[in-house]
Design brief:
heterodimer, A: about 170 residues, mainly alpha, 2 helices, about 90% helix, rod-shaped, B: about 90 residues, alpha+beta, 4-stranded mixed beta sheet, about 50% helix
Chain lengths: ~170, ~90
């Protein structure tokens, strides 16, 4: 073996070294590494599962969100239609109140016009009668002579009943 | 407000005196000077004037007829009063 250039002692020492290296490698390096890899695999699996679960949850949430949106949209439509109806009824009420108010104002104005007309008519009537009386008075003053006055007075006295009280003021 | 008793008495006397005088007097206002016959005829128609002193007055505004004033009592039988009454009637009717 020596002729072949192989040193037996060195070979044995190398073998022992290799054995020792193998034992140390297996015990302190390979095992923790494997467990670490396994742990990583488990974690990856868990992550994958979690991802799937999250995806599912996402999908569920999307469905729920879509349903919720639909419901909200329905409610919005409902509220808008109710608001429109209410606005219509309020509008009708306001129009009816305005019409009533206008009618009331119109009636009041008509009454006032009628009253003013009556007042004016009374005033004119009063003025006409005053003017007539003035004209009659003036004419009588001009045409009544002493004799006529005496005759009228005599006629008044003659036509009086005895102890007349009806003319007393 | 309290009125003094003396003032009150004076006022009472004055009013009584005035009323007494008024009850003795009467005023006859006419549009023209009344004749004696007319006055007598008026006294016949108003017997309460017989015992009263009559003051005669003329007022052309009366147009015709006469007014008798006895204190606060007035009897208007003038043509002017008739016209005013006529005016009132016209106003009431129309």
């Amino acid at each position: 073996m020596e002729n072949l250039g192989i040193d037996a002692k060195l070979l044995i020492a190398q073998l022992v070294n290799f054995g020792l290296f193998y034992i140390i490698f297996k015990k302190f390096i390979a095992k923790p590494f494997l467990s670490l890899i396994k742990e990583e695999e488990v974690n990856e699996k868990k992550q994958e599962e979690l991802k799937v679960k999250l995806q599912k949850q996402d999908e569920d949430l999307e469905v729920k969100r879509s349903d919720f949106n639909t419901q909200i949209s329905k409610k919005e439509d409902d509220i808008i239609s109710k608001a429109k109806e209410r606005a219509k009824s309020v509008e009708a009420k306001i129009i009816s109140e305005a019409e009533e108010e206008a009618l009331r104002i119109k009636e009041k104005a008509l009454k006032e016009i009628h009253s003013e007309k009556q007042d004016l008519y009374k005033q004119i009537k009063g003025k006409v009668s005053s003017l007539s009386l003035f004209i009659v008075n003036k004419t009588l003053k001009d045409i009544l002579t002493e004799d006529v006055k005496k005759k009228i007075t005599s006629s008044i006295i003659k036509n009086l009943p005895k102890d007349k009280h009806l003319y007393e003021n | 407000m309290k009125i003094k008793p003396r003032l009150k008495e004076e006022l009472r006397k004055y009013i009584l005196n005035k009323l007494r005088n008024e009850s003795k007097n009467a005023t006859l206002i006419s549009s023209h000077k009344l004749t004696k016959d007319q006055i007598d005829e008026i006294k016949v128609k108003f017997p309460r004037l017989k015992n009263k002193k009559i003051n005669l007055q003329t007022d052309e505004e009366l147009l015709a007829g006469f007014i008798i004033k006895e204190g606060s009592k007035v009897t208007d039988l003038s043509l002017k009063a008739k016209l005013i009454q006529f005016k009132k009637t016209i106003n009431e009717i129309t």
